[in-house]
Amino acid sequence: MHPEIMPAFDQIRNAVLGKDEAIRRCLACLLAGGHLLIEDLPGIGKTTLAKATAKTLGLTFRRIQCTSDMLPGDILGVSIFEPREKVFHFHPGPIFTQILLADEINRAGPKTQSALLEAMEENQVSVEGETRPLTAPFFVMATQNPREQAGAYPLPESQLDRFLMRISMGYPDRDAERRILLGEARMALPGLKPLLSAEKILHFRKEVTAIHLSDALLSYVQDILEYTRSEDLFHVGLSPRAGMGLIQAARAWAFLHKRDFCLPEDVQAVFPWVSSHRLQKSRDLSGFTPEEMAEILRGIPVP
Length: 303
Known about the structure:
Elements: H1 6-15, H2 20-31, E1 36-39, H3 46-57, E2 61-65, H4 72-76, E3 77-82, E4 87-92, E5 99-103, H5 110-114, H6 117-122, E6 124-127, E7 130-133, E8 139-144, H7 157-160, E9 165-167, H8 174-181, H9 184-188, H10 198-209, H11 215-230, H12 240-256, H13 264-275, H14 290-296
Parallel strand pairs: 1-8, 1-9, 2-5, 5-8
Antiparallel strand pairs: 3-4, 6-7
């Protein structure tokens, strides 16, 4: 782990017990400049991960609880007429923050889900004809319930594509669950201190972008993209944007592991989490699990 990131990682894992890999993927996604979708059952620790990350990194944090009757204005903000001044004043919505937790995003209707598209892609929102920039770094952490749960709207492909990674937390192991049952995680959360800052995160992102990528490794990424487009296993292949996300996520993974160059292992480490929500099986249009995505890589020669 990168020496400047290690203290933050250690503090987060004190509040998010037994989920070291999920924390690493979350940090890699943020440093890569992407957004994170966490799909899992309620009560697994998704919200705790978001709160602990925001506190530890010294970033502003807002949370929205998505519901079926939520409107785009509830996220973006609205202009309200002030009778005394006889003018409209814009009241910013919760999206004007650095880490936004969109809890149970697939319980919101499609119109509200789409309100996040411009913000996630352009780091800005257009409200009532005016474009308003968002504070950098801007990082969306959305949680999603499994599709079979009642009241869930499937995220459209355009929305899924805005998320660099989709991860799952999973149940804790027996030792971590015992500590959770004793209240250790709940007691640790209020005591978390900011160990980094927005300026430091932006500096790290510049370093991530400068991570060296060899021609051979770039060809390896292209081979992966081509494989998903040519094999009958997939309904449609990965897009160039997915390839760019894969490269940036691999660079962030290399940065976390104290390297200024990418290895094939970095691409392999992030590929399941970058690609599983972007690909569907041609047979029944169902999704792939990260384990299935990792198995697919075995058929592609490594440089």
